[in-house]
Write a structure and sequence with these properties.
Layout: E1 5-11, H1 19-33, E2 36-42, H2 46-54, E3 60-62, H3 65-72, E4 94-99, E5 113-117, H4 123-135, E6 146-150, H5 154-163, E7 168-172, H6 173-181, E8 190-195
Parallel strand pairs: 1-2, 1-3, 5-6, 5-7
Antiparallel strand pairs: 4-7, 4-8
């Protein structure tokens, strides 16, 4: 390979601190089979990933659906690949979780409670939960029905549920299953009250 083209790739932090590991096989495959050398970087946030792509500081990006739409409003984008959900669940889902000790049984029970979203711009941890709450009649929830905060990551939101620091969290089902399967959290410590 004589004419190696170097490209920068930015990834939104779907699972903070693990994106480089998740994308290493793809980056390696591209380097070994093409004339492209990918320099990969995990972004600090979804907004930062969009900003990096839009400002042309990266040529390739992995973004969540919501972030992709945000970036596409600012610059022309072309989809070159799409990640797939695990075989068991072909549909991307958001789950609302509570501590296994919680008395909350459904979305109706979260009025007046503390809700933890994951990160602004996250499809599963921001956009979908807001839509679900609106559909459930919890419109205007920031001021009247719920206290909403952002954890910064799926993992932090789950830890806050387990510690009892918040009442409910909305996260990606795919990421929840990965954390459960890796034994990073115990299935007996949380309960799903709603799945999109």
């Amino acid at each position: 390979k004589q004419n190696i083209t170097k490209l920068k790739m930015i990834a939104a932090p779907a699972i903070k601190g693990q994106m480089e590991k998740r994308f290493a096989p793809l980056v390696r495959h591209i380097k070994n089979t093409t004339e492209f050398d990918i320099k990969f970087k995990e972004s600090d946030s979804y907004q930062s990933a969009v900003k990096t792509l839009v400002s042309k500081k990266a040529e390739i990006a992995w973004l969540g659906q919501s972030s992709f739409l945000q970036a596409a409003k600012q610059v022309p984008l072309e989809v070159i690949a799409v990640t797939r959900s695990p075989k068991k669940d072909k549909i991307y889902r958001t789950v609302f979780i509570v501590s296994s000790k919680s008395r909350i049984k459904s979305l109706i029970d979260i009025k007046g409670k503390k809700l933890m979203l994951t990160e602004k711009g996250s499809t599963s941890g921001d956009l979908v939960p807001r839509h679900v709450l609106s559909q459930a009649g919890l419109c205007g929830f920031e001021t009247r029905n719920l206290s909403i905060s952002y954890a910064g990551s799926q993992e932090k939101a789950i830890k806050m549920i387990i510690k009892g620091e918040v009442d409910v969290a909305a996260i990606s089902k795919v990421n929840l299953l990965k954390l459960l399967n890796s034994n990073k959290i115990s299935e007996s410590s949380i309960r799903i009250i709603y799945e999109s």
